[in-house]
Amino acid sequence: MAQDLRSYLDLVKRRKPGDFEIVSKPVDPRYEITALVVKLEREAKRRPVLLFENVTGTKFPVLTNLHASRPRLAAAMNAAPEATQATYLRAMDKPIAPKVVAAGPVHEVVLKGDRVNLYDLPQIVHHEGDSGAYVTAAISFAKDPTREIWNCAYNRLQIKGRDRTSIHLTTGKHLWEFQRIAEARNEPLPLALVIGVHPAIALGALAIGSIDEDERGIMGGLLGEPLELVKCQTSDVLVPAHAEIVLECEILPRQRTPEGPFGEFTGYSLGERQREVVRVNAITHRRDAIFQDITVAHLDHMLLSTIPMEANLFRAVRAMVPSVKAVRVPGPFTCFVSIEQRIPGQGKNAILAAFGADLYMKRVVVVDDDVDVFDDRQVNWAIATRCQPDRDLTIITNARGSDLDPSAREDGMSAKWGVDATAKPSLASYTPRHRVPPDVWERMKLKDFFA
Ligand code: MN
Quick check: is 199 in a domain? Predict the structure, then answer.
């Protein structure tokens, strides 16, 4: 499978021409791009890939909304839409190691020293209240300073100067861990920030798992072949050879800068914090590079991140409860799990497994397998009719959670609650649900009674 963004865009155009819109009219990168994405979604019920050719203040065209459709993401994995989760789980179970190649188109243009200028990139401001221009589609590639363990992640970047950004490292996660190791040695942490990739690479970067699991192997698993990497021009960091744009950087030790507020996936614009500082040593890009943006907090962002989250949660619950049926992440910090409960207590074990597998999880609801977790009404019905809160609610206090949760009393510290909404002691012995007898249901045909 081709590993570059452009081949994937060609595939989108071939599969469904209306799924790709080129906008040639000039747009202001301050709010106007987000406004058009959200208006298309809400008013026209459309979520095409958008390529803005003429963005004020930059020569780079801006691509956004790439990930806002499940069939498009499935196509990126060469899977049918209904096989998305199974395909992702297979890539986690059978990763394909990356391979280093001698050269790649990402080095067609190399800018170092005084020629580095982040203000040449599109200066996109997404929402009212954002503290400045943000890069939202950068994937970090970095190595543990002490071991041969690599990590990839999405990290939001606020442009702070010609060669400076802030970086939001999720507290307690893998890149944060690497940075703390480097900082303890008073060393900068080399990293590369990669902008504009095939969505299989984007999906792989969001894999949640052990620090030992190499996201680049999951990218390969999704691509069906080894991810091709080239060495950076100014460091030993390896980056996708076919990317559009790479920022070759270091996170500076013991430096912090104010960052935020920034409107996030939580639906809130969260306040200013002190964050780590990135120095950009080189910018490399393809000729006629496309700058990719993720329309943060909208479908482009939410669909992309929930597929890997759901796969990881399914894997973790399955390790504890083999008869798990489905997992869904319906909103921030929340997951719904359905299980075929064979013995009492498995509902609570599923809750514990989900909390153990994902730092961000704050509310886990477990239902029986006769409840469709993709239907909010059914989940609410199960909570209402199968759950007694004094018996079935589990509250965990003072655990690590998301530092983007505005309800937390202290950044990143959170209580968590599990709701066991399975029938007790078992579904088979529970009060029966009402229904029309099956023979009558079969016999009664609408066409025999109504025109
Ligand atoms: Mn990792």
Answer: yes
